[in-house]
Amino acid sequence: MSETNGTEDAEETGPTSTGTSRAVRGAGSAGAAGGAGGAARGAGSHPRHALDDVIHAPVRLSIMAALSATDKAEFRFLRDTIEVSDSLLSKHVITLEEAGYVHVEKAFVGKRPRTWLAMTDEGRRAFHDYVSVLRRLTEGSPQ
User: Fold this and answer.
1) What residues pair up with 116 in beta bridges, in sequence order?
2) What Cα–Cα distance (Å) separates residue 126 from each residue in 6, 85, 143?
3) 102-106: long-range contacts, CB 8 A cutoff, minimum separation 24
4) Which candidate in 56, 63, 75, 126 could, as Cys together with 115 as Cys, close a disulfide (CB 3.0–4.6 Å)?
5) pTM, whole model, 2 decimals?
6) What's the pLDDT tens digit per position in 53-94?
């Protein structure tokens, strides 16, 4: 990783499971918002630079919001709650799991496979930080 100002690591682009790329933050660049992906992203001081790109996608934001209200949720319940297809939910869950924000547990209930999703402690912190940034943006708070 290259250094941008001598103290922070620059963003890198890494592959995801779908072959596309997404920004990956270096360990030394947590920034003002804290958390894995909630770091200040750009050169500016506007709060939008602190939005976590992993959570920012509407489906992932919906997943995180739904999981924030519970200890764990069954895949089918979450799919129906946020009104997406199995494949779309799976795709976004993989991204959240790779970021360390969601834990996936698979087991059988009788002869039927079941999948449960739970927000990790890191995911809860990142979601809390994300919501705080949104509040600053919507309330017009500069910092």
Assistant:
1) 74, 105
2) 25, 25, 18
3) 102/63, 102/64, 102/67, 105/72
4) 75
5) 0.69
6) 999 999 999 999 999 999 999 999 999 999 999 999 999 999
Residue with tokens 């924000």: 101
Q: Which tokens in the block code for residue 117?
A: 């999703």
Q: Tokens 């979450």 belong to which residue?
A: 78
Structure tokens at 59: 């489906």
Q: Where are the alpha helices (DSSP H) in 36-85?
A: 53-56, 58-68, 75-82
With left for phi above 0 and alpha for psi between -120 and 50, is residue 98 left, alpha or beta?
alpha
- Count CB-CB contacts under 10 A for residue 40: 19
What is the DSSP code (8-state) at residue 5? Answer: S
